[in-house]
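Example for tutorial group B:
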């Protein structure tokens, strides 16, 4: 239930931004202000809705820090005002906010035997978010956003418009492999978290990470694919990843 409560809050925050974006900014005010207020009230011991009632107990029981939940909101808020990231450092910070903060909180809920697990959760969150960005290149561009560093596009002689070209432009394959390598380095560091959390939780983490690694494998085999459509794994592939994950922890 703890993970579900965390997910429900994250989903509500994300939905608030999605609604604003779908309305083209027509709605007045900060769509995340109510969620910041709910969070502050929750930490003050005042809860007014079912999700925050459960989340307040999760916060108390597992010691979830205010700054990590606030960081999640800060990361989602960036989608309201930032459409491009100039450097990898800027993009990594976004990844840390929207994904790694959730990873750290999940590790707190799972339980861990060494604080290094929290650092490894950050690397794992960054890795999965970067893989997600590579998978969704075309879809994100059509929504007015580019989640690949502008400095990397320039390094390989590419522009934003090349992300929706009819065929893979010169430099795209090299860029994709460059970013995939960066993601794999983060996976290599982050997956050590499985050594410090309970076995069942480790299987879940390995499954989720394995799905994104399988996506990276496919993208590296077919670099032009994300320029055409969003890649998804079929049920057979997902089951295979799950089976390998459980086999590693049994």
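The residue assignment follows.
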């Amino acid at each position: 239930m703890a993970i579900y409560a965390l997910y429900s809050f994250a989903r509500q925050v994300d939905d608030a931004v999605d609604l604003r974006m779908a309305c083209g900014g027509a709605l007045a005010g900060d769509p995340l202000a109510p969620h910041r207020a709910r969070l502050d009230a929750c930490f003050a011991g005042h809860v007014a809705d079912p999700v925050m009632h459960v989340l307040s107990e999760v916060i108390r029981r597992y010691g979830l820090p205010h700054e990590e939940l606030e960081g999640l909101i800060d990361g989602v808020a960036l989608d309201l005002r930032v459409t491009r990231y100039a450097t990898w450092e800027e993009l990594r910070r976004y990844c840390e906010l929207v994904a790694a903060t959730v990873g750290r909180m999940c590790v707190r809920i799972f339980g861990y035997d060494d604080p290094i697990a929290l650092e490894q959760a950050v690397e794992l969150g960054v890795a999965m978010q970067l893989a997600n960005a590579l998978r969704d290149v075309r879809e994100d561009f059509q929504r007015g956003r580019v989640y690949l560093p502008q400095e990397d596009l320039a390094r390989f002689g590419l522009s934003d418009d090349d992300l929706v070209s009819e065929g893979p432009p010169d430099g795209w394959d090299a860029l994709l492999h460059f970013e995939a390598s960066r993601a794999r380095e983060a996976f290599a560091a982050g997956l050590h978290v499985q050594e410090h959390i309970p076995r069942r939780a480790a299987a879940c983490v390995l499954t989720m990470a394995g799905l994104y690694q399988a996506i990276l494998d496919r993208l590296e085999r077919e670099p032009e694919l994300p320029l055409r459509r969003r890649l998804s794994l079929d049920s057979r592939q997902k089951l295979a990843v799950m089976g390998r994950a459980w086999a590693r922890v049994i």
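The chain is about 70% helix and 0% strand. Compare this with the pattern of hydrophobic and polar residues in the output above.
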